[in-house]
Specification:
By secondary structure, the protein is mostly beta strands. The longest helix has 9 residues.
């Protein structure tokens, strides 16, 4: 896949073009952009090509990508040390994860193969199938939400993993693709936009981007030079209302809050 980061950035931050019509129609206002405050930094495995990040029952889980290197693991937050680990089957590129009940469920980039893992032991319990690509997952407490690189999010029935509904995401009136790692925070879907330093906050009712979180300063702080080592990974501690972010091959993971004390 190829992408032009500057074009994506402009699509996020510039107002929409005025629609062609006989009567003027106000263009939608661009979403507000916020820079996060770092509450604390933690060690992160710089060899981890992070694809999924989540906190479930107080435990931090991470999935990594690249064929032959894709794993799902439980990580000690304070030290960054791997506590236990499972390997994604050979030949597959691991992507996002979601916790549902006593399980973790994971997707792979190509092939439409998803897996079910026990939690916290990370023993493989079974598989499930889906059409198209798999990029990331989260849940809203009722359904599992899947991204696939397009502007369309899929809401899945957790019992069957069948598509219950879809949601098209827009920013400034335009479709927004390359939605990557997902997290559900404060009634909104947060999504990394691949190959940009931005997280978008999406209204799950209509798909409109309501806000943008600019991680540019954290990208600089991470000091990575590989163009693939982008911001990716959002975890929300629902019990303690803490937000964590990291990136592919980043040496640190950050607890952040938004300005004004908002934690999501």
């Amino acid at each position: 896949m190829t992408v032009r980061p500057l074009i994506l950035a402009l699509a996020l931050l510039l107002p929409a073009a005025a629609p062609q019509a006989t009567a003027p129609v106000p263009a939608p206002a661009p979403p507000p952009v916020e820079k996060p405050v770092v509450v604390r930094a933690y060690p992160h495995d710089s060899t981890a090509f992070t694809e999924g990040l989540l906190i479930a029952d107080g435990a931090l889980y991470e999935s990594t990508g690249r064929e032959g290197q894709s794993v799902i693991r439980q990580v000690d937050l304070a030290s960054g040390r791997t506590l236990r680990q499972a390997t994604v089957p050979s030949g597959l590129f691991g992507e996002g994860i979601v916790a549902w009940g006593p399980e973790l469920r994971s997707v792979t980039w190509h092939g439409g193969r998803g897996f079910r893992w026990s939690r916290p032991a990370l023993k493989k319990l079974g598989e499930w199938k889906y059409a198209g690509e798999g990029w990331a997952m989260t849940d809203d407490g009722r359904q599992i939400i899947l991204s696939d690189g397009t502007p369309r999010l899929r809401f899945l029935n957790p019992a069957t993993m069948a598509v219950a509904r879809t949601l098209d995401v827009t920013v400034n009136g335009r479709p927004l693709k390359y939605l990557n790692e997902l997290e559900y925070i404060g009634g909104q879907i947060w999504a990394n936009v691949w190959m940009t330093p931005y997280i978008v906050r999406i209204d799950p009712a209509n798909g409109v981007v309501k806000g943008v979180v600019d991680l540019s300063e954290l990208v600089t702080r991470a000091g990575v030079t590989d163009r693939d080592s982008v911001a990716n990974g959002i975890a929300y501690d629902r019990a303690k209302h803490r937000i964590f972010v990291t990136g592919k091959n980043w040496p640190e993971l950050y607890e952040i809050r938004l300005g004004g004390g908002a934690k999501g």
